[in-house]
Amino acid sequence: MEEQDKKVKTIRRSDLIVSTIMIIGGLWFAYDSFLMSYKTIKAGHATVATSPGLFPFIISVLIILTSLSVLVHAIRSGASLSFLTPRYIKNWVSNSENWTPLIVMGYFVTYVFILIGNIPFIFATLAFGIAMMATFRATKLIWIIIINVLYATFVIYCFSNFAYTKFPMSLF
Question: What is the dihedral of CA 85, 91, 94, 100, to 10 degrees?
Fold first, then answer.
């Protein structure tokens, strides 16, 4: 039973940190979505119901509300940030398994906010897929490259032919 309590305590500590990050991110996305909608409505290109930022705004508000609920639950459960001592942080940093989620999140942020839109979609997707698979040593490098070329090609084919999306560099 004691091990279960320790696990719950660790989860509640994580909830404090992650929910705070999600609230901040949700506020940023809500603000950005509001600005997008405001500009298109003001320019006469949309109404409130057809504005491009309406759906992201609603999702952002839902994320904020959900994260607030998780944060309140964690605080009521007795979680606090007192565990963030230099000794704890040093032990956490020295464990390489703890870095994997941060690296993966870094890949996603790089892919979504830096690569897509700045380089052709196929190259962004190839870089992301190869980096992810190489990080986790999914298979031999040659297979990683083949799998990602086929995947990126398939995605572009499906979006081009079924969703009629135009990519800056289309293969088909």
Answer: -80
